[in-house]
Design a protein that fits this description.
By secondary structure, the chain is of the alpha/beta class. Helix content is 49%, strand content 13%. The chain contains 10 helices and 8 strands. It has a 5-stranded mixed β-sheet with strand order 3-2-4-1-5. Strands 6-7-8 form a 3-stranded parallel β-sheet, with helices on both faces. Strand 2 (17-20) and strand 3 (23-28) form a beta hairpin. Helix 8 (256-276) crosses helix 9.
């Protein structure tokens, strides 16, 4: 299940709130309730046993602490089906992901855990399939705090393992324990920054969730600027195309009765012209109209009549009896005349 998350920057002193498309008239000011609503809607769409659905959840967040962005949270690639998932779950998830990231106007946020081998990252592979030059792919390395003791992600973050054109940003998210204990996002970001200062001091200013948000906003702005001329040209062409189509439909109908009478009259006139052979457009590949009717009457109908034996199944006595029965009316009329 995918999540459309639209972030809108509000004034500095305003409150944070959110709305769901499936709850149009309901405003959420408690983000725990927003999380619960996401879980509830996910269960409604996919079931309680890890199903899959192509129907997305649409969420809008209005806050003074965010940058104006639209994000699409896509599911990770599942290799082995579990629960109610179909046997082709991997193919379905791949098709869902590719349907979004194949759009050349979107940016790709490729997320990989720091405690896994980045060279085997399925997210990076899918991103490279649709963006081989890396012009719209930004890599994010999560779980920096869960790496084995004595190891770090310095080489990965510096691009020495796999270079990414737009860069690689490391972040530390809330753990499940933090979520269960309801650690606030502000406290989580503060702890994240403290962790980066202790373990990655040279990269602390270029890592973290806040830097990721600013980078995404900057990349989105530059990407829109690069795509805008092409989009403008496309909109202009489509506008001209549909304006021509709209013009071919004629003027708006003012009097429906008069318009209907005109249409019927025009149809009747063209029908008569086709029958009489005086139509404006004469068909050259086949007979039509009156010529077709004449051909059917004289050729097809005539041959069909000739192939029918009118006396089939009748004896001479049957014919004589029919003649006598048919002439009774005329004899009776003559008798009546004589009597009168």
């Amino acid at each position: 299940l995918s999540l459309f998350l639209s972030l809108f920057f509000q004034g500095i002193k305003t409150e944070e709130w959110g709305t769901f498309l499936h709850c149009k008239n309901q405003v959420f000011t408690d983000f725990d309730e927003i999380r619960q609503e996401i879980e509830k809607e996910t269960e409604r769409c996919t079931g309680a046993n890890k199903g899959i659905s192509a129907e997305p959840i649409h969420l809008k967040i209005f806050s003074p602490h965010v940058l104006s962005l639209t994000l699409v949270d896509l599911p990770g690639v599942t290799k082995v089906p579990v629960g109610d998932q179909p046997d082709d779950i991997e193919q379905q998830v791949r098709e869902m992901i590719l349907s979004y990231i194949s759009n050349p106007n979107c940016l790709i946020l490729s997320i990989t855990a720091a405690n896994t081998d980045m060279a085997t990252s399925e997210a990076l592979k899918l991103a490279r399939d649709v963006d081989p030059e890396g012009r719209r792919t930004l890599a994010v390395v999560t779980k920096l705090d869960l790496m084995d003791a004595g190891t770090d992600a310095m080489d990965v973050l510096l691009g020495r393992v796999i270079p990414v054109k737009l860069g690689i940003i490391g972040v530390v998210n809330r753990s499940q324990h933090d979520i269960n204990t309801q650690k606030s996002m502000a406290q989580a970001m503060q702890d994240e920054q403290s962790f980066l200062q202790r373990h990655y001091p040279s990269l602390a200013s270029r890592s973290g969730s806040r830097f990721l948000a600013r980078t995404l906003s900057r990349l989105l702005m530059h990407h829109i600027r690069d795509c805008l001329p092409e989009l403008k040209t496309r909109v202009t062409v489509l506008t001209a195309q549909y304006q021509g189509l709209l013009g071919s439909c004629g003027q708006p109908v003012q009097d429906q009765s008069a318009t209907m009478l005109q249409i019927v009259t025009k149809f009747a006139t063209e029908y008569c012209s086709t029958i009489e052979g005086t139509a404006r457009h004469i068909e050259t590949s086949e007979l039509c109209g009156g010529a077709r009717m004449c051909y059917i009457f004289h050729e097809t109908f005539g041959r069909t009549l000739e192939s029918i034996d009118p006396l089939s199944g009748l004896t001479t006595l049957d014919v004589l009896t029919a003649i006598r029965n048919a002439t009774v009316t005329s004899h009776t009329a003559a008798i009546h005349c004589c009597v009168d």
